[in-house]
Protein 1
Amino acid sequence: MRVFGWAADASACGYYRLGLPLEALKARGHRTLVSTVLPAGWLDADIIVGQRVCMPEPSQTWQRLARDGHLLVYEIDDNLFGLHPTNPGRRLFGDSAVQQRVRDNAAVASLVTVTTEALAQVMREINPNVVVLPNRIPGWLLIRDRPRRQRLTVGWAGSATHYADIAEIASPLRPHVFNRSKSPLRVLEVAALGIPAVASEYGPYEDFVRPGETGFLVRCDHEWVTYLRELAGDRELREVLVADVRTLALPAADMVILGDVLEHMASSEAVDLWGRARAAARRGVLASLPVVPYPQGLAEGNPFEAHVEEWSDARAQAVLPGVVAHDVDGEIGVYLAGPAEEPACA
């Protein structure tokens, strides 16, 4: 299959929304090309993905391709109909003729792809055939060493479309219809490197950031300073580990909590992890897992979300050493064990 990605620009939008997906297709044997220019030799591609096509000449080509029956996918990752007054993109996308071309080009597409459900709701008013394809990051980012510096560094991530957010302080999203349709891409990137984020409790961050685990969510203005100071003063709190727990050397801790973990690996690996967790814990280990048949495959393409083996309460008590207390509530069993006993002195 030949797939052409008609990129709007060479920025991160083109990379994440066209470059990475088409690179994956190419690795699976398909012929792909991504460019900001549609070459004549690719006009007969099996699929043409156009990223927010809206300028006059490209729009004429797009409309002609649609009339000729080509399979077209209109890709858009921002709500271009709800730009904030401070957004420099308003100079282009705020123009009524440009907005009409966005609508017309999306309307004739066979499919419209977006990043979030909030944006999908906007685009379904133009074309009912809309699918949400969340932003993804390249796999190599998960194994890249986290940058380390002698001095603490506090970063801010955002493009020129976020001037109003910079004014908010160091961060992210102010309540606005444009921001409501954004994705948690920036937080996803830093999370892959093990860097905690301080983000607005708004839009995509509400469901992505786990307060106290992968970062903090800000509800009130003064919390920016509170959370940044807390992270700046606590090195351990800034360490968000991103690793395969089956091979990870667990750091010493008072408690090791294995919530929704053991069922995602073979039972032999689970028992090994349980033993290493008890060895790392000063006070104990707490685990929870389904103890009824609970089949689960890949979640959003993540193979580590699949349930590998079935567990029962009896099996958990039999194979997890040192359990001192347990409870079953519906489908979930919870198991508590003390730390591993130190070997006796010779």
Note: The CA atoms of residues 212 and 222 lie 17 Å apart.
Protein 2
Amino acid sequence: ISGNDSTDSNVVALSNNQNAGLDDYNKGVALIKLKKYEEAITYFNEAIKLDPNNGLYWNYKGFALYLLKKYVEAITCYDEAIKLDPSKNLYKINKKMALWLRWSRLTTYLGIFFIIFFFIGILFFIPFFFRPAKAILFDFGIGFMIQVLLRQGRKFRDK
């Protein structure tokens, strides 16, 4: 009879342990709805400590990190969720979204860099492109003035 009592108490302790993880998970989800993502992550971490083999906890921790724009950390959490439960397509979709935003953010920064580089290049190099035209006009102007002065000098000399 005592063996049955100890087995029953182990079952109760195990279910309380799972409920504790579920309670922390539920608190984390509620905090996400309140846009308190940092606090939500702490609750998801607690849930993961209590039940590290639950892919849902890892997924929601990744989602909170995703909302904080911490895409690399979110991808790590999604990888763990996919490893624990590969049949869940939601985890794979979330990972793809985080990957896409991570790369689109990087390409946005690269795009801004190239636009700035392009305009700086135009500002610095356009004067060099127009320099030959200016030089030609300058040379023509000086040449014309020299010719006028020489003619005037000849007229003055010939008088």
Note: Confidence is low (pLDDT under 50) at residues 1-15.
Protein 3
Amino acid sequence: MRPKYVLGQNQEQTQIAIAELPSLPIEKGNAGASMLAHLIVSKYADHLPFYRQVQMFKRQKLQLSESTINGWFSASCQLLEPLYHSLVAKVQSSGYLQADETPIAVLTKDKPGSTHKGYLWVYHDPMERLVVFDYQQGADAKARKFLKDFSGVLQTDGYAAYNGLRLKGHILQLPAWHMPDAILKRHWITTANGLKLPCCL
């Protein structure tokens, strides 16, 4: 909104001053910061895809196309990218990280309707309460790339992708306390066999 002010008037004319347009996050765009934040939070925190948000806006008499929202979203990601890199650097500089990963089915652009396996890697700094989500198409090599300059304690669930990190010498790996019993038992048996210890599990 642009406020208008009457500076003066007479029988012939009225002098009106109109405030300048406010600064907007997207150049030549007409979406404010609150609208962009609402779209992103609704998509990722409330799990509302853009086509559903378009339908919700229509009920409020606001006509927006998916292409417009997608354009705003892409521009917002570019604006947030420096903050993301700053967050990554902050987490990587921690002396203690918790890491986990989960495979997800990702739609393939070249083959509509088909999917490929991607990985969402999560790195948590519990001391500073910071979290980084890092999507990658591959597995172990991508984890080593993110942690190549990390020095400290790394707590994981025992996934083999992290094993190569121990060879670097500056990373101490710890098991996760919430590790399922089956995984703990497997690691115990493997260790016991390697050390030639009696296994009573």
Note: The two ends are 70 Å apart (CA to CA).
